[in-house]
């Protein structure tokens, strides 16, 4: 099977079985999404969704968040991983958007990564979800699934390298969907420790699955 055929098989499968994938973070606007994605680093979406309503009730917009103090915000996110850093990041992010971008969240990756708490992965998520830009956020799920399926070479050992390979081979208009396809597949089917290979509709082209079959003899 050629690389092009492998990608097409995966795309066709998800187009049929997950035609309209969405982030599992709950948000109403770009501000809320940005806060949620910053909080979601090394934390589950479920935990973030339990926490953000209290933040948005007290700080409904960037302006109010930019005036928050550490001692005011910290209690609202102390159940999130790395609460000290994330409290500082959220306040710093809001202040920088207000000061440098006139209160409007920028929508380019290069601008977003200038904000405290925003790395390339977060910037890719924001731009792809809000504006469906052809940007691919590579988290642990995308990294794992894309290698197991054989979409990217095993030798690629950085998220950026995987990101570039996926973008090169997925049609631009589908990249924002493919981001969710791979994340959700990794979250619920292609698990890190006990992947549900027998339930997976991608067995036919999956390098990881065929390697398992060979090992089992």
UniProtKB/TrEMBL annotation:
- Gene3D superfamilies the UniProt entry points to: Helix-hairpin-Helix base-excision DNA repair enzymes (C-terminal), Hypothetical protein, domain 2
Annotated residues for binding of [4Fe-4S] cluster? 190, 197, 200, 206
Which residue numbers delimit the HhH-GPD domain? 39-188
What cofactors does the UniProt entry give for this protein?
[4Fe-4S] cluster
Q: What does the cofactor field's note say?
A: Binds 1 [4Fe-4S] cluster.
Q: What is its EC number?
A: 4.2.99.18
Q: What is any Pfam family matched here? A: HhH-GPD
User: What reaction(s) does this enzyme catalyze?
Assistant: 2'-deoxyribonucleotide-(2'-deoxyribose 5'-phosphate)-2'-deoxyribonucleotide-DNA = a 3'-end 2'-deoxyribonucleotide-(2,3-dehydro-2,3-deoxyribose 5'-phosphate)-DNA + a 5'-end 5'-phospho-2'-deoxyribonucleoside-DNA + H(+)
Q: Name one GO biological process term.
A: base-excision repair, AP site formation
Keywords assigned by UniProt, alphabetized: 4Fe-4S, DNA damage, DNA repair, DNA-binding, Endonuclease, Glycosidase, Hydrolase, Iron, Iron-sulfur, Lyase, Metal-binding, Nuclease
Cite the GO molecular-function annotations of the record.
4 iron, 4 sulfur cluster binding; class I DNA-(apurinic or apyrimidinic site) endonuclease activity; DNA binding; DNA N-glycosylase activity; metal ion binding
Instruction: Give the matching SMART domains.
Output: ENDO3c, FES
Question: Family assignment?
Answer: Belongs to the Nth/MutY family.
Q: Could you tell me what this protein does? A: DNA repair enzyme that has both DNA N-glycosylase activity and AP-lyase activity. The DNA N-glycosylase activity releases various damaged pyrimidines from DNA by cleaving the N-glycosidic bond, leaving an AP (apurinic/apyrimidinic) site. The AP-lyase activity cleaves the phosphodiester bond 3' to the AP site by a beta-elimination, leaving a 3'-terminal unsaturated sugar and a product with a terminal 5'-phosphate.
Enumerate the HAMAP family for this protein: Nth
Q: Which NCBIfam families match?
A: nth
Protein known as: Endonuclease III
